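pipeline stage [seq->struct] | target=Thiol:disulfide interchange protein DsbD N-terminal domain-containing protein | organism=Sorangium atrum | residues=173
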Amino acid sequence: MSTHPSTRTRKPLSAAMCLIALSGLPVLGCSQSEAATSRGAPEAAPAAPPQGGKSKVEDAVYTLEMKPTGTYKAGQEGLVEVSLLSKGDYHINDKYPIKFKVTEAAAEGVSYPKPLLKREDGMFEESKGLLKVPFVAAKKGKTKVAGVLSFSICSAANCLMQKQELEAIVDVQ
């Protein structure tokens, strides 16, 4: 068999090559629906500054929110809720390792009994999910609870892998 380029048969591009193509490097023969991507749908706006203590991210394919859940007392464990809701033809990827990692530089006087929460720490269904993030605030007043949620949301055509910063302002009594 000849090794001359014009007589070799062309092989389809692998998924890895598709990912390279989607990253902006020039590779031909790959479409966006052939590979998982963190783009593909309109990009989510950054988490809005907390209003009423919560931050919310609205996207064409999901809504993500972090909010206080009740009253908080200094020195006692409290919880904030992180909720994820898929929209339209999208669903929460049941194979992706969802995790919430608290912000490395925690607000002064705030500690986290569990700084890394995983899928099994929450409740996740096809179109909605919920994580309860425990924290302890040492002193009274308003303080920030923050972290990054890593998740994947999919349609029949593609999967989007996301990392979204979230924060909630809580009023500690």
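stage status: PASS
auto-comment: The first strand starts at residue 55 and ends at 58. The first helix runs from residue 15 to 22.
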